[in-house]
Amino acid sequence: MYKLNSLNYPEADDLVVSKLLSIEALSTNAEFEHLSTKLTEKFNFSSLHSFSFSKEGFLGLMLELKADIAVSLGESEALVQASKLYESLGFKVTYINLMPNGEIDYKVIESLNKEYLFLSSYIIDTFVKVDLAKVKDLFAGTLISNISATLDAQYCDVAYFDIYKLSGYFTHSVLLHNELFEEQNLAGVDTVGVKLISDAISSEKENIICKDEFLKVLQETLKDDLLFFVDSNLTLASVAHFGLKGIKAREVIRNLSLASIFVTNGEGCSLGLSKPSRIIQEMGYTQLQSRQALSLSFCKNLSSEEIFQVVSKIGKSYRQIKALHG
Question: N or C end of the chain, less CB within 10 A?
Fold first, then answer.
């Protein structure tokens, strides 16, 4: 089996949580306190907050800020939906557009006078990298970032994790900050979510170096039928993003799954939905074009033989579907 969508739909491990992590009244809750402190210190923050990675959860965070905000349109669907709800309540939201090449519009950031900016170190779906060091030079306010794929909090003022992307389970996510939010009632902190995130970021990750070879073989196989929405050099090392001209990606996704090769068209927020990638449309492509997009994320390096096998399956599936529609 080749699970080439690990950053969107991760493979879950068996869930084992010690009862020592349960929160008890009139107790030191030493096990949880140790876990919480270890997590905050690892990323150089002082406080930990758990929240639901959903539009309702993000809206709750925004309502605590009680300020006009800026949000990148390259963020998760949950965050963008929450921003629109926040806007409907009378707050001002400035949206940072995506450029045709998939990068954010840094010129807009330079002119921002908002106190808070939701902008992560990568764009959802395409995983185009965002230069947060540059952003911090341009933006004087508080930068709030999802660091799930990079685990790098160097340039953000508030960091949060997508629990589903890291563990495969949906429970409460964790947000790390320096006393920006009010102290959370200990009984309201999701200890299971904290444990899952701690385990996920502590696990050893393989250095992915197979992307270039994979894309080279893919180009040799599909030639002019291949479409690149973004430059592969702009994306995370573990991700390949492309389109197959003239067909809907979901048809290829179904065919490949029968051969135990799992890829995706959109982010985890779209799981189970028929909607194509919103991100591709934000870049200026049509909805029809966005339905051609495929996203692969390698959790381990593939050998040359494995690359040939996977690409051959993609090519065969594509040609079969195109012939049926021809």
Answer: C
Residue tagged 């994979």 (tokens): 214
Strands 172-177 and 158-160: antiparallel
Q: CATH 3.90.1150.10 residue ranges in the chain? A: 207-325
What is the CATH number assigned to the segment(s) 19-202? 3.40.640.10
Residue-wise pLDDT for 22-40, tens only, equals: 887 767 888 888 999 999 9
Helix (H, G, I), strand (E, B) or coil at 20: helix
Distance, first Cα to last Cα, the chain? 30
CATH 3.20.20.150 fits 207-325, yes or no: no
Instruction: Decide: pTM greater than 0.90.
Output: yes
Residues of the chain with CATH 3.40.640.10: 19-202
CA distances from 139 to 98, 100, 115, 153 (A): 17, 22, 9, 16
